[in-house]
Amino acid sequence: MFSKSVYSRWMVLLVLLMACSVLVLGCSQVSEKASEKLAEKALESASGGDVKVDLEDGQIKVESKDGSSTFKTGEDLSWPKSMPADVPQISGAKISNVSEASTAEGQTFMVWFEGISDEDQVNKFKADLEAQGWSISGTTTTPESTYIAAEKADWSLTATFNTEEGQGIIVAGQQKK
Fold first, then answer.
1. CA distance 19 to 24
2. Range of 38's domain?
3. What's the average model confidence in pLDDT over 82-99?
């Protein structure tokens, strides 16, 4: 989807961002700036460039010359406003985390869910995808989970739902031409 070097850097940044979030989201406001600086140094070391990190209210924002990324966690999260309107939400599930990344090459959205209790929710999501014009390129189902891959124009989407654990994730990415 993205050039390998930019994609690899952003994947490293996202993984580090999530790891840093575990460490810094619990910090008080007094130590928030110190935590931001620590996260900036770690991400700059991993990416080889200047990185700006901003922590506030369960959200981490990262900006660099290659693009920007946000990671949100908390109780009252909503569907990303920038997510394409034709990506359906999964009915009856609660959003637990949201990540958005944007570079010159494209953008990626990740939405994590809790409360996925049965296969009917997953089947409705798949039917909603098809109704929105997405082409299903693959589906894998086990007794406890379902994986769906879909494509539409310059977008690709994967969704993984584990009804046994009640969790899932939708990842939508676009490569700019």
1. 9
2. 1-64
3. 94
